[in-house]
Amino acid sequence: MPCYKLALILKAMWQPKTAAALKHKIEALMDRGAIMRDLENLSERALPCKISTHNQWHNRGEYLLVDFYAPTITVESMMKHLSPNVDVIRPNIVKHTLTQELKECEGTVPIPLEKKFYYTKKRKK
Amino acid sequence: MVAMVAICGGLRRKKLTHLVTAAVMLWRRGCSRYKQVSSKEDLPIPMENPYKEPLKKCILCGKLIDYKNVQLLSQFVPPFTGCIYGRHITGLCGKKRKEITKTIKRAQIMGFMPVTYKNPAYVKDPIVCNVRYRE
User: Name one GO cellular component term (chain B) (predicted).
Assistant: First the structure.
């Protein structure tokens, strides 16, 4: 099963409320056949801009990162479940970065002079 | 020699010049001044350039770029506009520039990085690109 990461921005609420909301989301994930891997909390902080969702303006938000293994079908159904949720400001599921291999970068390949001065592609006439 | 002259008198000018050049070539081959080199020991051996320098690396070569690392991404964005600096300013190679652009867009859409301006906390960061700001 591929590894995904859920970057969740929750509404700024009292701590027990946030905990309950998070628990609800994770239970929903596990119901769809996901296996939790890691949970990170990047504290509650000011959002980069005012975001409006569900007829409300938000200035502050709780940033959470959830790593999980899940079948590919889960992603769509999870997004459908999270978007109408009032507590959630912005849900995003992405492929996990550590699973992608870091390609070896040899260096800046010098562009030959011909390519710089002559237009090689065929122009449509 | 006389016979040759008689023959040349009968022919036309073009054919005459051809005959003359052929005669000169034969005469030259006969001379010992021009020698054919038979052995190839002195010729240079074909090989890769031994003084080749390793390719120059851009500042982000071999480093992992993450959408959460907003400070790194903000270094390639001007403080008052949302645009991303071009290759002639940043000095990055093609691959890394594309990666940075995609990661910046990702961070902006996901709500980690502001779009229209640079995060004021990261304005005082060391300048990595080839820009000069007004003081």
Answer: mitochondrial small ribosomal subunit
The residue-averaged pLDDT of A38-50 equals 90
Asked whether the beta carbons of residue A107 and residue B64 sit closer than 8 angstroms, the reply is no
Determine if the pTM surpasses 0.90.
no
pLDDT at residue number B31? 62
B32 pLDDT higher than 70: no
Chain B neighbors of A9, CB-CB under 8 A? 111
Domain B70-122 falls under CATH 3.30.70.360: no
Contact flag A105-B113 (C-beta cutoff 8 Å) = no
Dihedral in degrees, nearest 10, Cα atoms A79, A81, A86, A92: -20
Domain ranges of chain B: 70-122
Q: Tens digit of pLDDT for each residue in B82-126? A: 899 988 888 888 888 999 999 999 999 999 999 999 999 998 888
From the list A98, A88, A74, the residue with the least C-alpha distance to B111 is: A88
Q: Which of residues 52-71 of B touch A (CB under 8 A)?
A: 54-58, 61-62, 64, 66-68
Is A26 at the interface with chain B, CB within 8 A?
Answer: no
Nearest CA in chain B to A92: B110
Q: Tell me the sheet residues that pair with A6.
A: A66, A93
